[in-house]
Amino acid sequence: MWLYIIISLFDTNVKSFRRKGGGTITVYIDVLIITSVYIDFFLIKATAAVLRRPPPTAGRAVLGALAGSLTSLILLLPSLNNVLLFLLKTASAAVIVYISMGCESIWKFIRDIIVFTAVSLCFAGVCFFLSETLAEELIFCRNSTVYFNISPIVLILSTAAAYGGICLFRRFSDAAPTGGKYTVTVYTDKDSFSSFPAVADTGNSLTDVITGIPVIVCGREQLPDIAAMLPEDGVSLPKGWRLIPCNTAGSSGLIPIFRPQSVYIRCGETGRTCTADVYIGISSQPMKYGVFSPSVLRSM
Known about the structure:
Blueprint: H1 2-11, E1 14-18, E2 24-28, H2 29-51, H3 58-69, H4 82-101, H5 106-132, E3 139-142, E4 145-148, H6 152-173, E5 182-187, E6 193-200, E7 215-219, H7 224-227, E8 241-247, E9 252-258, E10 262-267, E11 273-275, E12 279-283, E13 290-292
Parallel strand pairs: 6-13, 7-12
Antiparallel strand pairs: 1-2, 3-4, 5-6, 5-10, 8-9, 9-12, 10-11
Helix pairs in contact: 2-3, 2-5, 2-6, 3-4, 4-5
């Protein structure tokens, strides 16, 4: 199969296909690959938005999109059966998710693949509907792959508008009140945990510089057992810890952070509890309450 695709690429950069309703459409292979990279990039970002997780860096998203664009070449093949298409698309989704979002655990990895596949199917479904009705001269679907017979400017504007709509929806759906008291419970392993009071504050925008994941900041006195692991010099950190820059209203410096096994946040007013994908930062300054961004709250 892939040999057929490679031969096709070297044979000519243009392929013509006959539509079901009559007529033909010309597919430019370089345009197919470029637009596939562009679309996969936004599908990756949209998947992160649906999962309510920090989006991957632009570099990782581009690499994932480049890997996914290779699958778009199945458009050049004769019509494939649904089972083979499903296997190819699932394998492609796994590669894209692994490159762009990583693999924290097998279950989260499977979840991310399912969500990415669902987002892609929604996109492909809309495109198929348009290709069969309103935009049959602009959109061509074959082997579950979409080809846009439109100018790059139109594609850029339309995709950016769709992504902007998702981000706007996220902003309103994720909105959470900054008032009220919360209890943060940090599990370092299955049977070891500590809890401390905390408040949601939009002023805390601290995130890990590598992953973009939010950081809950607390004082040493709130997690004494965990803080006892830190050396007095604050430099030679134990395994699993690292320093990131931290700026406050009156000073700036470095703060040690670590990734706990799990974190739960309980609202004192409603009694509801949500999980939080966060790092924990230990401040050298005494703090009455831990502080986290309201964006880490999922459903309170």
